[in-house]
User: What shape does this take?
Amino acid sequence: MQNFTFHNPTRIIFGRGGIARLGPEAAGAGKKALLVYGGGSVKKNGVYEAISASLAENGITVTEHPGVKPNPVLGHVRAGVEKAKTNKCEMILAAGGGSVIDEAKAIAAGAAYDGDVWDFFTGKAGIKEALPVFTVLTLPATGSEMNSGCVITNESLKQKFSAGSPRLFPRVSILDPGTTMTLPEKQTVYGAVDALSHLTEGYFSASDKDAVVTDEVVQALARSIIASTGRILKDPGDYNARASMMWSATLSLNGLQSLGYGGISFAGHAIEHSLSALYDIAHGAGLAIILPALFKHQLEKDGSGRLEKFGGAVFGAGSAGKTIEAFERWFKKIGAPIRLQEAGIPAADIPKIAENAMELITLWGINYDRKTVEEILTKAA
Ligand code: NZQ
Ligand code: ZN
Assistant: This one.
């Protein structure tokens, strides 16, 4: 087990009625907020109304920044930075899923910076300051509500890159599982795949494979995600299943999931980001396509040990091959695509996708060359 430092400063307010506490929590950061949200789901499910009431009661005025799209884009981030600066906002509030939270974080960093916010994503500049971020999460998936990263697509360059800094941990995140009851089934499914992938990325690429406690945490979270998804698909109104899913997804990418592993690689994400950058598909859908192919590659390259251990503990699978089959079976069962053509992506595009992926692979320091990425994508065809 390798050395680590763990510090996660985000305050989590979990459970029914939590949104009423946004105003009192945010009041400590000032009186003027930028409220970031997406295409309108928060207006349909009462989240927007509850936020507005809590902010008004606490004397916080709001400039709105609606219209964040899934796979948020740089142009919209830049517009948000402009608004935050012009209106002298003291904090950024996010109401929605990972896309909204990521855009809020990018705006929070951009508003405290004189240059172009994209500098943080290319590594040209580091994030030294950011406005405080508060979130109301409505989609369990990314873990963005309790981590220090954000992912934005540069729509003209077709680059989906990430930025991170301890400054980007949300100050407070409100997780009311009731807000997730209105999720379309597909979004529930893609969220589950994403959360599961955050666990497998570290577990399968761990430099140190003898961190028993973290293995056990990961396996337990994976079982919880799989069990909760099954219950939600059967009964979308099952509050306790929604609650377990929400907290499992948060814990799957808040740092806990890879403590003691030493170096890990997010290779599946580096390749998936090219699918969502080039074809604008949901991140979770792209992952369900890439992961089985990546696991096949890892089996050839790294041997069967990790796949066997994970599969035995999570699926009751008896071998590495059976573990990969179990992943594919589960993705299919819940309605996620597992091959490129199911998402309408032709195999002829593989060289183009690999070329795009190499940019992030290089930026993230992953030890894959273009041929390896093409081989993995070919396994997904
Ligand atoms: O835009 P609205 O109207 O809010 O609708 C959204 C959107 O259409 C809808 N939705 C969200 N909550 C809802 C709801 N609809 C009804 N009821 C609700 N309660 O769901 C759709 C998808 O939302 P989105 O935020 O895009 O989904 P998700 O949370 O999966 O976020 C995906 C983004 O996060 C990035 C992904 O790459 C992608 O861009 N990631 C961020 C990470 C991070 N910051 O740590 C890590 C992840 O690996 C990931 O890369
Ligand atoms: Zn992800």
